[in-house]
Design goal:
The chain is built from eight helices and no strands. The chain has 177 residues and is mainly α. The protein has two domains: 1-46; 48-176, no CATH class. The protein is 77% helix and 0% strand.
Length: 177
C-alpha cells in the first residue's frame, strides 16, 4: 500500500513540475520570442521585401557572403525550417553547400536569437544552465556560440561547395567516357 501511495504522489508531482516549467516559459521566453519575431518582420517590412531579395541575390554571387551573410540572414529572418528557401537564390551546384551552412547555423544562433530555432532552445538552455552554475555568463556563451557558428558555416560551406563541384565534374567525366 505504501508503494502505491508513493507512486501516486510522485506521478502527479511529475506533471506539477512540468506545469511550473510551462508557466515559466509563458512568462519568460514566449513573450521574448514574440517581440523578437515582431521586430524582425517589422525591419523586413520597413526595408522592403524587394530590397531584401536584391541584397540576398547580391550575396549569392560571392562565396564569402554566400556562406556567411546569407545563412545568417536566412536563419534570423525566416527561422527554421523556412530558412532553407533562400537556397532559391544560389546555383544548383551550390545548393548542398548552402543547405549545409544553414543547418549548421541553427544551433549557434539560438543563444542570441531564440526565435530562430525554437526546437534547439531546450538544448541551449540546458547548456547555458550548466555554464551559469559554473559561474560564467550566459550572454558570453551566446556571443561565443554565434561567432564560432559564423566561422563554422563559412568553412563548411566552402568545403561542401568544393566537394560538390569535384563530384559533379567526376560524374560528368564518367558519363562522357
Amino acid at each position: 500500500m505504501k508503494y502505491i501511495e508513493w507512486f501516486g504522489k510522485n506521478f502527479i508531482g511529475l506533471f506539477e513540475a512540468g506545469g511550473e516549467q510551462f508557466m515559466g516559459f509563458m512568462t519568460g521566453i514566449v513573450p521574448l520570442l514574440i517581440v523578437l519575431l515582431t521586430f524582425t518582420y517589422s525591419v523586413i517590412a520597413f526595408i522592403g521585401q524587394d530590397r531584401v531579395d536584391r541584397a540576398i541575390r547580391y550575396c549569392s554571387k560571392y562565396m564569402l557572403l554566400r556562406y556567411s551573410i546569407m545563412p545568417i540572414l536566412s536563419v534570423m529572418m525566416l527561422t527554421n525550417p523556412m530558412a532553407y528557401t533562400f537556397g532559391k537564390f544560389v546555383n544548383e551546384e551550390e545548393k548542398p553547400a548552402f543547405y549545409d551552412s544553414v543547418v549548421s547555423f541553427l544551433h549557434p544562433v539560438t543563444g542570441l536569437f531564440p526565435y530562430a530555432n525554437a526546437g534547439e532552445l531546450f538544448v541551449y538552455l540546458g547548456i547555458a544552465n550548466g555554464v551559469m552554475k559554473a559561474g560564467y555568463s550566459q550572454s558570453s556563451l551566446a556571443v561565443r556560440y554565434f561567432l564560432v557558428g559564423v566561422v563554422v558555416i563559412l568553412f563548411r560551406g566552402i568545403v561542401t561547395e568544393r566537394l560538390t563541384k569535384f563530384l559533379i565534374a567526376k560524374e560528368s567525366k564518367r558519363a562522357n567516357a
